[in-house]
Amino acid sequence: MKHILKKRFVLASHSPGRIALLKMLGYRFDIIPHSIEERFPGNALPEELVQNLAFLKATDVAGRVDSAIIIGADTIVLHNKSILGKPKDIQDAKRILSLLSNSEHDIISGVCMMDMPSKKKLLRIGRTRIKMKRISEDEIEIYVRSGEPMDKAGAYAVQGEGKKFIEKIEGSYSNAVGLPLEIVQEMLNNFMDRNNSNA
Questions:
Q1: Is position 60 annotated as part of the catalytic site?
Q2: CA 17, CA 172: separation in Å to the nearest integer?
Q3: Which of 30, 60, 66, 74 is an active site residue?
Q4: CATH top-level class for 9-198?
């Protein structure tokens, strides 16, 4: 059963995908984009990386609000142990899509939920396995020209035109879009239970 949120709820992102997903949970929330630069150190473990970036995003926005529950999230694509973020340019988008063609990869999201002013936080990980079809050079060229891949981790959108390249999804669909709703709801329930027990 969904709790009624008694505090302001803030999403630390302007991602259209994350905004649309969070609306599906039925809560009212504000959007305050973070100002964190996403960096991917070569020696970072994927799970630690996404959790750390989600924490930094939530913390960045937490400094701008007095009382709220803030959610920060970060998503990467992991292919053959290599982390794929958002493409740097058109050529990079083509390179990434060529790598993903006819292979499997994981989409990993880190989620941080932070309460202000207490600064209590929860960190969680979501993971989804994707099998891609073989993508021809012409298909890659047309898709990249559409502009959709340019601000997406892994250079494609599961919820957009990129879905035509997907052969199989194992795990959370919403996580593949960028925000694992099952985990977000669990975290919110945890926060509400904590607040009620402290009342």
A1: no
A2: 14
A3: 74
A4: alpha beta
**What is the rounded end-to-end Cα distance, in angstroms, of the chain?**
20
Strand pairing partners for 84?
77
Q: Does residue 131 register a pLDDT over 70?
A: yes
**Both structure tokens of 133:** 């079809």
Q: 91-106 in b/e burial notation, b at 16+ Cβ within 10 A? A: ebbbbbbebbbeeebb
Q: Which two tokens stand for residue 155?
A: 């250079």
- On whether the CB atoms of residues 157 and 198 are closer than 8 A, the answer is no
Q: Residues in the chain, how many? A: 199
Per-residue pLDDT reduced to its tens digit, 158-199:
999 999 999 999 999 999 998 999 999 999 988 877 665 554
Tally of CB atoms within 10 A around 19: 15
